[in-house]
Amino acid sequence: MHNAPTSRRIHRYAAAGLLVLFTAAFTAAGWLCAPRADVVPLLVPAGSQDSSFVESKAAPLIIPGRGANGVAPKTLKERARDSYVLGRALEREGQPASAIVSYRTATIFDSTMKDAHLRMGMLFARVGQHRVAAGEFAAELTLDPGNTQAGRALGLSLASIGDTTRAIQQLELLTRRDPRDEASWQALGFAYGAAQRNADAERALRRALQLQPKDADAWRDLGALYANTGRGKAARDAYLKAIELDQSDARVFVNLGNLERRDNHGDAALAAYHQAELRDSTLGFAYRGQVDVLLELKREADAGAVYRRWLKAMPEESNARVEAMALFTRLGRSDVALELGRDGVRRENRSGEAHLALGMAYHAANQERDALDEMRRAQLLLKKPEQRGRVEKMIAGLRAAAPDSLRTLFAADSVAHMRPVPADSAAVRGAKLP
């Protein structure tokens, strides 16, 4: 019933950023210390050429158990605590990938530290990586078996990846342990719904609402249950109640948009999806809903504007980029398609798909030399033989349709690529792209 998960991929953050993170972490932990300014100068006896004293930095005595600056080195647990504190700060600053690195560092320093695995799991779950999140929640429960928040989050993640049997077992355990915990009843209702146990789901969600009538999540999930079972009016009422209680939840607006679209209320669906975008600019389903409705309404220019907002907010969405390029090409805006394609290559220069998309955009703009260059780069980078074969057929099509002015170019290309390059060849491994 959480049918609008954010699909964000954390593992794609660049490793170069970790250097800055670890420098900050080590400084906070006291590993990188500035020289002390209050050292006593070392007095050097006068030499044969000079009767004056020479001052230099002191070489302090090394006391067992203390560092060169006289301060005891931090224990592993202290370092773990510093990394954990840094992780919380990075979370507050909106840097989830860096926060995860700090939490992971904390668990390496202290494998018994509580809460770090829970924090990581919550960050992974937030971007839809529920399988990874489930592993973190399970690790937290190993350290802290009575942690209800971790137990509930584990159940939700298991349900989200389709492991509904274990999810229900986990969440039923929590409701037996504390029958008045409305959040566990709400989570159990979600798991029942994922397992298509609709009657049980409704009972669990109603139980949650008896305990806490203002639980917006329970109203949202109840609305999704009604929508999935064909009770449109009840679903809409539940969604509106959820919005009344919590206007910040973008997912309920996506759910409402889906309902309105299903009922052929295009304008209402667009309004709901747009409200979702305003609340969470990284929620792909909000943009997808708008694009689909606008294309159904033949409002292609407006759909193009949504694509551009989508790629500005989520530039890593390669599928959306390719769709947008195709749309702008169809609209006669090859300049915009090329702009998007070049940006995609800048971001993922080792992606065969990105180079192929740019090559197709060049072809649509009648820039065949550039199109051929990009398609050959794509062919080098694509891993599957069938993918490289399709590119070869596309190039053959370009060659067959080429005007006389490009015959020499394609003839030279044919000679240079008489035999396909194996995927594991040195040419591929060492390919240097501009």
Instruction: Let me know the average pLDDT.
Output: 83
> Helicity level, as a percent range?
55-70%
Distance between the termini: 46 Å
Order of helices and strands: HHHHHHHHHHHHHHHHHHHHHH
Main structural class = mainly alpha
Coarse shape: globular
- According to DSSP, the number of beta strands is 0
Q: Describe the main β-sheet briefly.
A: none
Q: Which band does the percent of strand residues land in? A: under 5%
Which properties best describe this structure?
434 residues, 67% helix, globular
Please summarize what this structure is.
Helices cover 67% and strands 0% of the residues. The chain contains 22 helices and no strands.
What does this structure look like?
With 434 residues, this protein is an all-alpha fold. Helices cover 67% and strands 0% of the residues. Helix 6 runs parallel beside helix 8. The chain is globular, with a radius of gyration of 30 Å. The two termini are 46 Å apart.
Structural topology:
Layout: H1 16-28, H2 76-92, H3 96-109, H4 116-126, H5 130-143, H6 148-160, H7 164-177, H8 182-194, H9 198-211, H10 216-228, H11 232-245, H12 250-262, H13 266-279, H14 284-296, H15 300-313, H16 318-330, H17 334-347, H18 352-364, H19 368-381, H20 385-401, H21 407-416, H22 426-429
Helix pairs in contact: 2-3, 3-4, 4-5, 4-6, 5-6, 6-7, 6-8, 7-8, 8-9, 8-10, 9-10, 10-11, 11-12, 12-13, 12-14, 13-14, 14-15, 15-16, 16-17, 16-18, 17-18, 18-19, 19-20
